[in-house]
């Protein structure tokens, strides 16, 4: 609902006017309130209901994080392989 309200507010604006409209909304207190509400909703939806979904979130999040951490090394390795192939011929 909040996104629908926000989009209806900026619907008729010019693109250069949008940052001036959004800037007062982006404050540290608003960010803290947003994060707190999100954590409260997550707790109510998954933790208090004894759901297994948080375990899935941790597992898949760990897999994604480890992939992203290893990605630069893998790219360097593949680039080195490609470079070696080019010089082998």
UniProtKB/TrEMBL annotation:
The chain crosses the membrane at residues 52-71. Keywords: Membrane, Transmembrane, Transmembrane helix. It comes from the Eukaryota. This is Uncharacterized protein.
């Amino acid at each position: 609902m909040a996104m629908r309200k926000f989009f209806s507010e900026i619907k008729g604006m010019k693109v250069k006017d949008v940052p001036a409209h959004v800037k007062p909304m982006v404050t540290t207190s608003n960010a803290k309130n947003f994060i707190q509400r999100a954590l409260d909703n997550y707790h109510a939806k998954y933790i208090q209901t004894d759901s297994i979904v948080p375990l899935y979130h941790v597992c898949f999040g760990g897999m994604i994080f480890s992939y992203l951490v290893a990605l630069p090394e893998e790219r360097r390795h593949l680039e080195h392989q490609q470079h070696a192939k080019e010089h082998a011929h």
